[in-house]
């Protein structure tokens, strides 16, 4: 169907009309133009209202495409529509005009146009997915987790009262009245959206014939009508208000849902308002709506953990959430369970059941390590630190108090690669970093280490400056009304989140290739500098030719100890590389003026995507292959069994960054028949300082993959009675045989 | 003190209770037809070749001082008898197809590795297992490891074929929390034919340790066509009746996963064509053993 650009044009007109107005008013009027248009109708089976469409021009804190945040315009998509569809000359001109307008008016452009000469030189590209480079900026204000408890406590009328009072006293207290006026308009938009869905439900009811669906829709109608005029009183109303708000604020991570939903749930069930089954249906419906939001790296729901005011009720929601994740077979939401000594064992057992069914959720976070780490890394007090939540790929913030968007990625392995090539990126042949001397001029390993450090530090400084600039431009552009109404001290101070409204404005930097870099450095140290068995020139040639003709050298590199095997030499190098980058990043905060600036060592597809543009490395990794994922060893490099791997994982410090993740894989058999062993294994890992675990349960597909790509599956042992073998070393037909049997 | 080790498995779940670290020692006095670890028979390090990985590059042929390797007509021919395990071929093999099985390791090194998983042992009720080969055959080494482990509070187990002297078993007894003791064949003559030795001394040792309070799991490899017969089943049942203190009978049903191992080290697998035991056959065995009065039987 031909895209009509109706709302994009309306949005642009509103923006132009209010271009010189107060940023809060301008934002509010733009929100009014885009909503409810960008909402989508209720779909069969939905028990809650709230689906979003993909507006091509609009306003949001988060990204709607690479580099699209704040006032954004998805130029490529719009041009595609123009190319593929037949628009009248008049329409075409109109659309081209707004494209032209937004090309210099979108927030990303404004941000980039304020880059310093040095930033422009060393951060020439925003396309980290496809281009080769050491560091790239990310344009987004992501991961904010507002105060949902207050939202649900006050509801729309309560918020309106509060804001109205603040507006009335604004002048007297020298606060910005327009900020509050903007917030009130935003609440009108909220009501407009509810009205949109009320109409939507009524229309559906007119057409619906199935009795049970009619009953569901009638309930939904009552819920919508209730939350429009009063604060939520039931679990269903609370879920509904929450869900619509997440779209309005474009909040994609939901924080401690068990805490803010637990009391509603408990009260409804205990008072006979809904049954457990009905409550489960609602949560399942919410989960499905989250799936359809397709955030890929967001949709975090946090359950469990210390510091919940209503632990018992919260645990009741946690059990329900776990059951929803068990029964809704999907890759989202990213249900995350904070575990701690003394927690409800029923919740933990249930979590293991769900993981054991191969859901990969919940992700486990160990409070007994993480709270202390958050205290140290962020310099929070313990009470605040108890309210940490991981968002997105695993970055921590303090719910509705702190903010720390990852506004950049750095590829440490590329930094080493460019350093070894005296500032040139061998992938492109172009200058890509500091020229610190050629490999030959590094007379000792210490020389190389220092040069690598300098290279990394250079880019870290630029990324820290870019983070601050991003906030500055964002703060000047808009107050981000929906988030600000429930964040930090925004309401009381009359300031938007990025205009001084929150005390704890921090930032994060995503690092990639950490383990490959460390393993490479160790291989160079041992073979080039210690045993002198590999000449520098030969190593460079081998790397540049992706080991073609240097197979034996590659084997030597592979034979050097690797992270993930509980080998002190290899693990110490990882700790050293980790500590260097984490400490240097952390030191930037005072220089650039952030509450914190921290490394996150997280997982998503960046290790693979950035691997595609990273040459062969001295750890034996071939050119363009994936780099390691998070705090994990490189796939296939851990060969000493799971205890050895876990012992390695706990060595890098956890109190100098804002989150790191690790993947663990187990067989289904382990969960079904050896639950006690599994529990003691995880317990020991967590006792030893394990901060986090993402557990995949390996099934036969993994074995099949192992047969196709044996080099990646070195860690799979098969045992029958007293005989053990690495699965990948067995003959084909025997592998086939084992495929039909159990693992371990 | 050093011993000849050929592998160390951490997170081993099949050699005693809980999470264990299993040390595999090289060398065994028996020569079982069905041996699934043939690379553990010899008391010397030896060359191993994985033909699946070989790219026929010829580096081994060029580097070997003893003419062990020849690439002829696209085939890699190895004369294992000439090998002095000097490792030039291994170092020069880019594909990793060649390796030396067996390496010397000290008691201290072993204990360092074992201690790394100590907390896992404690939380899971696991510990250390010495397997092989035959651990009793590198006696001083085995004894020293067991003693150190036991004295530092680590649960200890050994997997043994039972062939050693009574004195040695008595000496090791206080330091072993669990014996995984093989019972391969009841008939002494057959035992000699299948394993190269009579079971006389083995049974003596078993009785001796049981009488002296050892904790024993009896491990019975069952090989179709060899020892899956009524007489042996009666022998197993009889042993359990005589020694009710035997904690468990573990049937180790024959499987052919180790089929190609002999070839890799230049040996011939005499049972190359024997298939793994089917589930239905296993069921029949359990039925027979139960009928004969066996209790507490399981598959290992």
Summarize the structure.
The complex is a heterodimer of chains A (744) and B (300). Chain A is of the alpha/beta class and 744 residues long.
Search tags:
heterodimer; A: 744 residues; alpha/beta; 6-stranded mixed sheet; 5-stranded mixed sheet; 31 helices; 12% strand; globular; B: 300 residues; TIM Barrel; Alpha-Beta Plaits; two-stranded antiparallel sheet; 11 helices; 23% strand
Question: What report would you give on this structure?
Answer:
The complex is a heterodimer of chains A (744) and B (300). Chain A has 744 residues and is an alpha/beta fold. In chain A, 52% of the residues lie in helices and 12% in strands. Chain A contains 31 helices and 23 strands. In chain A, strands 6-7-8-9-21-20 form a six-stranded mixed beta sheet. Chain A has a five-stranded mixed beta sheet with strand order 5-13-17-18-19. A two-stranded antiparallel ribbon of chain A has the order 1-2. In chain A, a hairpin with a 3-residue loop joins strand 10 and strand 11 (395-398). Chain B is α/β, with parallel strands linked by helices. Chain B has two domains: 2-43 and 102-299, Aldolase class I (TIM Barrel); 48-101, Alpha-Beta Plaits (2-Layer Sandwich). In chain B, helix 9 (230-242) links the parallel strand 11 (216-222) and strand 12. The radius of gyration of chain B is 21 Å and the shape is globular. The mean pLDDT of chain B is 95.
Topology:
The complex is a heterodimer of chains A (744) and B (300).
Chain A: H1 6-17, H2 23-34, E1 39-40, E2 51-52, E3 57-60, E4 70-73, H3 75-84, H4 89-105, H5 107-112, H6 117-122, E5 135-137, H7 148-168, H8 177-207, H9 211-229, H10 235-248, E6 253-256, H11 257-270, H12 276-293, E7 300-304, H13 311-327, E8 334-339, H14 345-356, E9 363-366, H15 367-378, H16 382-385, E10 388-391, E11 395-398, E12 402-403, E13 406-411, H17 412-420, E14 424-425, E15 430-431, H18 445-477, H19 481-484, H20 490-493, H21 497-501, E16 504-505, E17 507-512, H22 514-530, H23 536-544, H24 551-559, H25 568-592, E18 597-601, H26 606-609, H27 642-649, E19 657-660, E20 663-667, H28 668-673, H29 675-687, E21 692-698, H30 700-708, E22 717-720, E23 723-726, H31 732-739
Parallel strand pairs in A: 6-7, 7-8, 8-9, 12-16, 13-17, 17-18, 18-19, 20-21
Antiparallel strand pairs in A: 1-2, 3-4, 5-13, 9-21, 10-11, 14-15, 22-23
Helix pairs in contact in A: 1-2, 2-8, 7-8, 8-9, 9-10, 10-11, 10-12, 11-13, 12-13, 13-14, 17-18, 18-25, 22-25
Chain B: E1 2-12, E2 20-25, E3 46-49, H1 59-63, E4 69-72, E5 75-78, H2 88-92, E6 98-101, E7 103-106, H3 107-115, H4 118-124, E8 127-131, H5 139-151, E9 155-160, H6 166-172, E10 178-182, H7 188-195, H8 200-211, E11 216-222, H9 230-242, E12 248-253, H10 261-264, H11 279-291, E13 297-299
